[in-house]
Amino acid sequence: MHTEEMVILTRDALLLPLGRIKVRIVEPHYLKMVAAVLKGKYPLIFGMHRVHGKLPCYPYGTECDVIDFNQQKGGALELVLEGKQKVKIISAVQQKDKIWLAQARRYDNWVSESITEQYEILSAALEHFFQANEALSKLYTHINLEDATWVSQRWLEVLPLYNNEKLRLVCQPNCHRTLDYVFKLIQSHVNNQDNSSLSDLDVKKMR
Asked: Are 11 and 23 in contact (CB under 8 A)?
């Protein structure tokens, strides 16, 4: 299967297709890399940082677009990234300028599908989460709460799960297992708190 040369940006966070994240860039090699991306020289992969291993991140990442940027004082650059396509990193080499250059292969994104009545609580809870997190909410022009794939991927991005658990769900062929997983988390959290409502959900404690 076809592979393509891409550059890797790593953070201790997950970005999936149609998700958005704000990233502050201060490292000189990353600034140089972003300049190359904006000139169209390389596609950009956003990967979850990994301490041990041959790669700087987990082998499954997301090709993303820079949809906005802002030059800050001191030379720092603030980017807004939007996930576009899931990729598997086959190999990567760190160049002399510290930029990681990867051979990566695109694979299928989850297909969009309507959320069923059983899982509407996930949409409602996510809406509350966005309302409580204005900085995240402002990154989006549209909150697609009717789409099961969109909702499940946003939950994977914000839940404080272990990275290997997130990747186990990300690598499934569709969103169904994630929907079930998050549904059980929310149900358990609500049942364990007296008089709890969706607006009382503490996402940081959901694991």
From this structure: yes
Q: Which two tokens stand for residue 16?
A: 């999936």
Query: Measuring CA to CA, which residue among 173, 128, 126 is closest to residue 152?
Result: 126
With tokens 């695109």, the residue in question is 106
In angstroms, the CA 167 to CA 107 distance is 14
Rounded Cα gap, residues 153 and 193, in angstroms: 26
DSSP 130-177: HHH-HHHHTT-S---TTBHHHHHHHHHHHS---HHHHHHHHTSSSSHH
> pLDDT tens digits, residue range 7-61?
999 999 999 999 999 999 999 999 999 999 999 999 999 999 998 889 999 999 9
